[in-house]
């Protein structure tokens, strides 16, 4: 069983649409990271959030850490084909990272 | 290029066999993590080493073992292989031991057990 559950598991949208991916747990994390993985490659870090309620923006991507540090969301505005990939959240407890189940995003031109 | 090197990239073997996966971390990174990624299980944490010492253990089977050598490279040994061990095995490195550091992943080793 995964410590972090992501939803939705699969998402296929048209270019220009907005979307939100959720990462939920019953555990409290010291930090929460989001990674993106493309086929044939390892995950690459997008952002780290460490404070409950923290919001970080990275161009068209907005990341939020829940107030209780148990959940997070990733919002993409005006999705582009280049956003296609597997999005993974990862929560830190001590010096271990626990990865979510992943959300596979396809943006159709 | 993350700076993390994993070999081999692809490996096909039979049930009951033993394989060794190798990881060279980024220069200067002391922490090495091993993860297993399969279609139905996501990315599962296996084990972590820091400067040669085991620091955390996840869902690693007893048939699997790992070590980190003085030059900081790491090896993951998988024995008595079963069909269900077929997966992508990732190594990641980090400069810190703490859970706020960035993980740099290699490209993975794809293991197929027939």
Keywords, please?
heterodimer; A: 109 residues; mainly beta; six-stranded mixed sheet; five-stranded antiparallel sheet; 56% strand; globular; B: mainly beta; seven-stranded mixed sheet; four-stranded antiparallel sheet
Straight-line N-to-C gap of chain B: 31 Å
Structural class of the secondary elements of chain A? mainly beta
Order of helices and strands of chain B: EEEEEEEEEEE
Helix content of chain B: under 10%
Give the total of beta strands of chain A. 11
Count of alpha/pi helices of chain A: 0
Number of helices of chain B: 0
- Tell me the Rg of chain A in angstroms: 13 Å
Q: Which structural class fits the helix and strand makeup of chain B? A: mainly beta
Low-pLDDT segments of chain B:
none
Give the structure's gist in a few sentences.
The complex is a heterodimer of chains A (109) and B (114). Chain A is mainly β and 109 residues long.
């Amino acid at each position: 069983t995964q410590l972090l559950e992501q939803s939705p598991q699969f998402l296929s949208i048209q270019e220009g649409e907005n979307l939100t991916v959720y990462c939920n747990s019953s555990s409290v994390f010291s930090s929460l990271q989001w990674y993106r993985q493309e086929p044939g490659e390892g995950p690459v870090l997008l952002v780290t959030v460490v404070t409950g309620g923290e919001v970080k923006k990275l161009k068209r991507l907005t990341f939020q850490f829940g107030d209780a540090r148990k959940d997070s969301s990733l919002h993409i505005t005006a999705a582009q084909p280049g956003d296609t990939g597997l999005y993974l959240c990862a929560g830190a407890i001590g010096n271990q990272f626990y990865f979510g189940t992943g959300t596979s995003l396809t943006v159709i031109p | 290029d993350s700076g993390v090197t994993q070999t081999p990239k692809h490996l096909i073997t039979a049930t009951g066999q033993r394989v060794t996966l190798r990881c060279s971390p980024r220069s200067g990174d002391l922490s090495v993590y091993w993860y297993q990624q399969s279609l139905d299980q996501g990315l599962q944490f296996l084990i972590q080493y820091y400067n040669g010492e085991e620091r955390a253990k996840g869902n690693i089977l007893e048939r699997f073992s790992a070590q980190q050598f003085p030059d900081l490279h790491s090896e993951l040994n998988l024995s008595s292989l079963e069909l269900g061990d077929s997966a992508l095995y990732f190594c990641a490195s980090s400069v810190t031991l703490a859970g706020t550091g960035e993980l740099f992943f290699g490209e993975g080793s794809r293991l197929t057990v027939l």
